[in-house]
Structures are given as structure tokens and as C-alpha cells.
Amino acid sequence: MSTALVTGATAGIGLSFAHQLAERGHDVVLVARNRARLENVSDDLRAKYRVSTEILVADLSDRAETGKVAERLADRARPVDLLVNNAGYSLKRRFLDNDIEDEEALFDVLGRAVLVLSHAAANAMRERGHGAIVNVSSVAGQIASGPYSAVKSFVTVFTEGLATELAGTGVTATALLPGFTHTEFHERAGVTMTSIPEFMWLDADKLVRDCLDDVAKGRVVSVPGAQYKAIVGALRVLPRGLVRSRARRAHRPKD
């Protein structure tokens, strides 16, 4: 029986990963900040799929707590075969209007935790000769819209580099680039998204299913949805000045 570890496993894309991996027969290590929500998800997975679950309560903006998750990934006696770095959130206001401590915490969760946990997992997996890492990035990483898009750009390029370094080892790395997805992500950030047309929204379960198929095929970048495949393709060739101009208009803060 293989084991998967999912960060941000109690809601949205992370919750879908937890369910679909358990459905495919993986035991699951669930990582999030809220113990009660973790216990609810754990109970649900065990009841529905008859798999083993493990809970790790960790705030990935805290270096010591991130270190605990890294130690679990590096544990030779309890190997993790698939890591999903999914934990994340967004801030409502613009960079210069936020306290720098809030921006640093966001950076630690979205960027530093991906770096640290990927390092621990990739070394352990390489030693065993098999494994997979999924880093949840975003289509936002292709534009220019503050620290969130900047760190998501880092996640994508970092994952591409990691995949190159792991080539031939039996270990793969895949960056998942979702666009707008029906989850509680925007609600928790306090951002109103009613102006986004319905055809731009993705279903979390479908995008996770498509991503896992891409992982099985060894794809380095997984972009769910025909609309976002087209958008990402266009963003790669458009002049950056035009991209910046469009991002300025599309991502104004909402009061």
C-alpha cells in the first residue's frame, strides 16, 4: 500500500486530492492547521475507502512546524510515495497596503514550504527509486499581480527545475496550474468574484483527476481546462508589457 501526503488537505483542491488518492488505494497523511477539520476528513476517508490515515497539525508559515512535516517525509521507516504541496491562501489587499508580517507568512506557506517539503520528499524518494511530487501553482503565476502571482511563478519554475534534476531517478515532479476553481479559497480571502463568468470556473474534482492522470504520464506541467490551456499558451507569447497592463485592470482590490 502506497502513502500520499497532502498539505492543505481539509478544503478545496487539497480535500479533493485526499479523497481521490484514498479512492485509488493510497493511505493518506493529512496536513493542515485545524485539528477538528483534519479529524473529520480522516474519519471520512477511513469510512469511505478503508484506508489508513494520519494527521499532522501544522502551520506552514511556522518554520519549526514545517520542519515537522519535512521530517515525516524523510522518515525511511514510513515512506511517502506521493507528496501534494497544496496549502495556500491569498490576501485581499495590495502588497503595499498589507503588513509585511502578513506578506512574509504568505510567502512562507506558498513558497518556502514548497521548497522545504519538496527537498525532503525528493531526497527520500530518489533514494528508494520511485515517487511523485505535485506542487500546486496557479495560472496567476503567468501574470504580474503582486506577491501571490510572483510566488506561484516561482513554484512553477522551481518544479520544472526539480523535474529536470530528478530525470532518470524514477521520481517525477509536476506543477499544477489551476485557474478559478469552485472552492472556499476566495471566500476565505474576503474577495468577491461575481464578475468572473461561469465558463471560467473549474471543478476541483475534475482538475485533480486530470492532474493525477498527468502525473501518471510523467508530465511536468498540468494545466486543467481547455480555457486555461489556451490562456497559458497565450501568456507565454504575449509581450510582458501587455500582460502587466491587463493584470492591473483585472486584479484591482475589492473593498
Question: What key phrases describe this protein's structure?
Answer:
255 residues; alpha/beta; Rossmann fold; seven-stranded parallel beta sheet; 9 helices; 7 strands; 50% helix; globular; disordered C terminus
How does this structure look, described?
- The chain is α/β, with parallel strands linked by helices and 255 residues long.
- It has one domain: 3-Layer(aba) Sandwich (Rossmann fold), CATH 3.40.50.720.
- 50% of the residues lie in helices and 13% in strands.
- It contains 9 helices and 7 strands; from the N terminus they run E-H-E-H-E-H-E-H-E-H-E-H-H-E-H-H.
- Strands 3-2-1-4-5-6-7 form a 7-stranded parallel sheet, sandwiched between helices.
Within the CATH hierarchy, at the fold level, what is the topology?
Rossmann fold
Mean pLDDT, rounded to whole units? 90
Number of helices: 9
Strand percentage? 5-15%
Structural class: alpha/beta
CATH-derived architecture:
3-Layer(aba) Sandwich
- Total count of domains: 1
- Main β sheet profile: 7 strands, parallel
Strand ordering within the main sheet: 3-2-1-4-5-6-7
Distance between the termini: 48 Å
- Unreliable stretches (pLDDT < 50, length at least 5) are 250-255
CATH homology group: NAD(P)-binding Rossmann-like Domain
Walk me through the topology.
Layout: E1 3-7, H1 12-23, E2 27-32, H2 35-49, E3 53-57, H3 63-74, E4 82-85, H4 100-128, E5 131-136, H5 146-166, E6 171-176, H6 185-189, H7 204-216, E7 221-222, H8 226-235, H9 240-250
Parallel strand pairs: 1-2, 1-4, 2-3, 4-5, 5-6, 6-7
